[in-house]
Amino acid sequence: MTKNRFTIALAGNANVGKSVIFNQLTGLHQHIGNWPGKTVEKAEGTLCFRDYMIDIVDLPGIYSLSTFSLEELISREYITVEKPDLVINILDASLLERNMFFTLQLLELETPMIIALNQLDIVKKKGIKIDYERLEKLLGIPVIPTVAISGKGMFELIEKAIELKEKKVKIEPLKAKYVKELEERIEKILVLLEKIQFRHPARWTSIKLLEGDKEVKKEVAKVSPEIVSMTEEFAKEIEEIFKHPCSTVITSERYEVISKIVREVREITPPAKPSMAERIHTLTTHRIYGYLIMAGLVFSIFYLIFTVGGYASSLLGDSLFGLKPIFESTFGTGIVGELLWGGIMEGFIGGVIVALPYILPFYFILYFLEDSGYLSRIAFLMDKFMHKIGLHGKAFIPIMLGFGCNVPGCLGCRIMETTRERLLTAFVVTLVPCAATTVIILGLVGAFVGIQWALLLYIFNLLIIIFLGRLAFKALPGEPTALIMEMSDFRVPHMKTVLKQTWFRLLEFVKIAFPLIIVGSLVIKIIEILNLLEPIANILSPLTVFWLGLPAITGIALVFGVLRKELTLIMLAALFGTTNFASVMSPIQMVVFTLVAMFYIPCIATIAALAKEFGWKKTSIITVFEILLALLLGGIAFRMLSI
Amino acid sequence: MELRLSDLKNGEKGVVLSIGGIQDRGDTRRKGRGWKFRKRLEDMGLTPGTEVTVVKSAPFNGPLEVCVRGFRLAIGRGMAERIFVEAKR
Q1: CA A29 to CA A47: how far, in whole Å?
Q2: Same domain membership, residue A509 and residue A601
């Protein structure tokens, strides 16, 4: 079967319905992973259409092709280096101006492209009329009107793409012209660049050089440093003339060109009364109601997940552990059977009873809220508080996730723009008490020492987060963080997209967490079979007994807790042979033990997630740091409480 | 009158003059600091000459919600203090 194969890249701003179009085009034939070596999501899929196999790459949602964020850099690299056969630029028709700023830059990259003018349904409601045929003429490239959620225009989009690929339609993309002083200088650089045959389009490169783009400068400097120094001269001249930095002048000029086009193609008759979406926005960002709604929503989500999830989890656990007799009758109770069941299967079950009842609904709600637009409102409301730990509003979302489970929290740090912000946020997330930690706090201190002590530990944890967050923010070099975030209109989430995202995220969790959980539980099982648990407890005893004042046996529980933190409690009960911890530990010991368990290490699944996102080096630093921190805090607490 | 965007009251409009402040320009020591954020704001349409409306600000001196080129943008307080505008009253 010889099919014609080619690649289409989907590009556009965030919140324009890009992922919905991606889902409509590729169905379930998709693969979501990361860009090589980067913490940015890469979604790829294939579409079979007539005689064609079309690979579709969903580029991250971005506003520009500068290098503000990793996403922008990756998209730019992809378009300029990998050179997809075609780019489909998706525009939110109700926000033409800002969307076309990106379009203009894509045009400068001289890549063949089509425009999908999306959300025409919303546009109508907003009283906006767009003459897309005129837009097509002005831009010189095909413009296809679409309504992604209902699938309207998808067929035409692909048909047009194939026509373009087969060169059946001639296109003459707009070459935007800017103000005279700028054009003269672009022209001069362009000539030189063409002489050295630079690998990117000459006009685009000239403009990027004038903008002072560091990446492009570096590349050009390798071939011809003279060109770079010349453009620096030019940029200074432009600054003299316009009294604004050169990059500002270029951005203004781009918007000038766009405004002209938009004026020609768009008519607005604003609706008389505010829309439903508008009213929800006002309410959810209100200085009082906004916080009430947020608190109510967040608490009910957690409550629901913990009660229903807890119930489902124990049900699931019971039925899976019920398989033990069957397992034993097949593999016997010898060493092999022991390793297979106690090592691999119990590790696997441990993963399943976290993934299905907790992570799955968590992800679902998260993506539901994200698609509706609500998450950006939470970020808006929480921005001020997040600044207290050197982060901005968006960081609240991964941190909130961390309270459920640190793993999605760490993965959720991708919503932060820069690597530095991502690392800082992930560090904070690993300090957040997750559901399992909460089980320990409530099950040990809450039940046997007093609920006020449990609350105190929680508050202490938050204080540590604030303190260490600030410290890390000061210690890590880089630019200060600031919130710059679009708050798109509220909309009804597109279920198919939400479900797919949930599904692929769950798969990712399984892929990251399961191997390490299973290997970890196998290792511990082997240690157990070799009767090494006691020696390990003895080795740890200077720390546990002398420094922390705990019974030596707790060392074993803490080792198990690396797998899943609530295992510390389960093991403690097993080792002591009682669940009445008050009979075997003093209140001080329980508080110290819980304090250590809270901080002493991110669990193995979190370590895996961290390693995937930031590499082993940073992960080891965080892990070692937290072990030392837990020991320090535990030791101090033991001495202070004993007074 | 030249003001900072953060000085505008809810519902007030202004025209962007510059980001980072005129006095900062040419000062090479400050170069790079916050450059990316200036570029980001400009990329999102806050170029000199653009009209901005402050819709509201979050409590406790939180971020500002502004309307620019027909869309809603949340800007952190610290950033808004560095956007200079000519108030339209």
Answers
A1: 7
A2: no
Nearest CA in chain A to B57: A287
Q: Which residues have a Cβ under 8 Å from the Cβ of A348 and sit 6 or more positions away?
A: A514, A517, A518
Contacts with B47 from chain A: Cβ below 8 Å: 248, 251-252, 255
| Out of A255, A287, A479, closest to residue B36 by CB | A479
Output the pLDDT for position A2: 53
| Domain presence at residue A174 | no
Closest-CA residue of A relative to B44 is A98
Q: Is A240 on the interface with B (CB under 8 A)?
A: no
**ipTM metric:** 0.89
Q: Which of A135, A165, A195 is the last residue of a domain?
A: A165
Is A247 in contact with B39 (Cβ distance < 8 A)? yes
| One domain, residues A434 and A447 | yes
β-bridge partners, B3: B85
Mutate one of B10, B60, B72, B83 to test the A interface: name it (highest A CB count within 10 A).
B72
Instruction: Give the minimum alpha-carbon distance from A506 to chain B in angstroms, rounded to a whole number.
Output: 31
Find chain A residues with C-beta within 8 A of B60's C-beta.
384
What angle do helix axes A225-242 and A180-196 make, rounded to 10 degrees?
A: 180
DSSP category for residue A487? -
Centroid of chain to Cα A466: 22
Residues of B with CB under 8 A from a CB of A: 18-19, 25, 33-34, 36-45, 47-50, 56, 58-63, 65, 69-79
- Full-prediction pTM beyond 0.95? no
Residues A590 and A449: beta-carbon distance below 8 Å: yes
Cα separation, B55 vs A105, whole angstroms:
30
Residue A14 makes CB contacts below 8 A (sequence gap 6+) with: A61, A62, A63, A486, A488
Residue B9, classed as helix, strand or coil, is coil
Residues A207, A123, single domain; the answer is no
The last residue of one of the domains, among A235, A268, A301, is A268
- Interface residue A101 vs chain B (CB under 8 A): yes
Structure tokens at A467: 């303190």
CATH H-level, domain B2-88: superfamily: Ferrous iron transport protein A (FeoA) (2.30.30.90)
- Interface-testing mutation among B19, B27, B47, with chain A (most A C-beta atoms within 10 A): B47
Residue B65 contacts by C-beta under 8 Å, 6 or more apart in sequence?
A: A285, A380, A487, B54, B55, B56, B57, B58, B72, B73, B74
DSSP H helices, B1-89, are 35-43, 77-80
Averages of pLDDT over each 10 residues, chain A, 643 residues: 82 91 86 74 88 92 84 90 93 93 93 92 87 93 93 93 86 89 93 88 93 90 92 94 92 95 90 86 93 94 86 88 83 80 84 84 90 93 89 92 89 85 92 90 91 93 92 79 87 89 87 86 87 88 90 89 87 85 91 93 90 91 94 93 86
Q: Give the whole-angstrom CA distance, residue A405 versus residue A412.
A: 11
